[in-house]
Structures are given as structure tokens and as C-alpha cells.
Amino acid sequence: MMREETVFGPIYSRRLGSSLGINLLPQKGKLCNFDCIYCECGWNKDGRDDKVIPSAEDLRLALETKLKECKETGTPIDSITFSGDGEPTLNPQFPEIIDITLALRDEYYPNAVVSVLSNATRISRPGVFEALKKVDNPILKLDAPTDELVEKINKPAGDYRVEDVINDLKRFEGDFVLQTMFLVSDDFDSSEPRQLAAWMDIVRDIRPREVMVYTLDREAPKAGLKKFTVDQMKELVSPLIEEGFKVQIRG
Fold this sequence. Notes:
The protein is α/β, with parallel strands linked by helices. 33% of the residues lie in helices and 18% in strands. It has 8 helices and 10 strands. It is globular and about 50 Å long. The two termini are 21 Å apart. The model has no long low-confidence stretch (mean pLDDT 93).
């Protein structure tokens, strides 16, 4: 299981370049309302040895220290990226933390973008939605077009409905990035024609400014998962590309 400090990196991201990571969750555990079969942080049940969540002030101190250090050493930063050990919007001070991050970005690395990787489960909350609207890259997950398939892939906690997430995503009026994992499991295949067509119809409905399609890159907690090649994924999403959607594909 991965373990991340509050601010870590920068590391090279296949999607975002030189990325300075922010983890708003426990440094030695995992906190998420999804339990994805492919999560590089492992299963939720194995990450309960730490429940300490950094405060907004903790983040301010850690981020400013790191940004100063990177500036002094000439280290490039393309993106300040909220990811970490679980779902970042679960931190109760997420909106305040976004404001702090944007201010520090403007001071130290004004050309860097601020990105948030989120499972989109809490975008119905006004504070979370408004905070995500402020960042450069709200990267919001939807891995499957039906509740049944989401249960197999993401194993959400609580009440999750794809229809509700779609309606919440529409509130961004296209100004967000949709992120979707393509993979094959023993009971799920992203290339299955009906499910692929249904997912593409959702993309056409919500019309994100960009779609990020990616596949397995690291060890997953569930055994037996299979990845796609870049060429395979490009073929699968070719109708969207032909229709003019911007699609970023990463193997």
C-alpha cells in the first residue's frame, strides 16, 4: 500500500507532468468512500492504522515549505495535485485548503495548475462544488455507466447512483475533466460493446472539456485484472475522438 506525506514529490505523472502531490488524508492509512479493485493504495480494510487528517494550517505550513524548497532548487512543478491516500474531498476543510493552495501557487509557481483527482461522490455539496470550480483541473471519476458495474469496480460506501453523479457533473457546464479507468476483471470488461456505448452516451451528455482514459499502471489489490494497450483504448474511444472530444489516453 502506498503511504504519502501531506505534501510529496514532485513526481512524474503520465497525465500531469511534474506533479507536486497533496494528501489531505492520513499519512499512514487510507480514507476513501470507494474501495476500487484497482486502487494503488490497496483495500480500505488494510489502511486503518492511522486516522489523523491534516488541518488547513497543517497543509499551509507543509505546502509553503515545499514550494520554497522547490523554488530555491529550481525544481519544475507543472501541477499541484490533490490525490493521496483516498478521496481528498473527504477532508472537512477541503474548501479552505483549496483557497490556501491557490494563493500559495500564485505566489511561488504562478504557471503551475492546480488539479484535484476526485471520485465525484461529494460534488453535490456546495462547498466542495464551489472549491472544485476554482481549480484549473477538476478531474472527476466515472468508471462505469451503471450502478451495478460501479459496485463491481469501485465498491462505493453509502448511497451511490450514477444518475445523481451525472446530474451533478452537468453543473460544471463542461468545465471539468472526466477520468475513466479501462480494465478487464473476472466480471467486468470495459470493452464490452453495450457498456462502452452507454459510457460514451454519458460523455456526450455531460460534455467534459477533456476525457482521460487510462488503464492499470501499478499493482492492484484485486488479483487477475488485465490492462489495455494504448492502441486498444484509442480504438475503443475512436467514436468520441471523431466527434471532436479531446481524449487523453494513457497506458
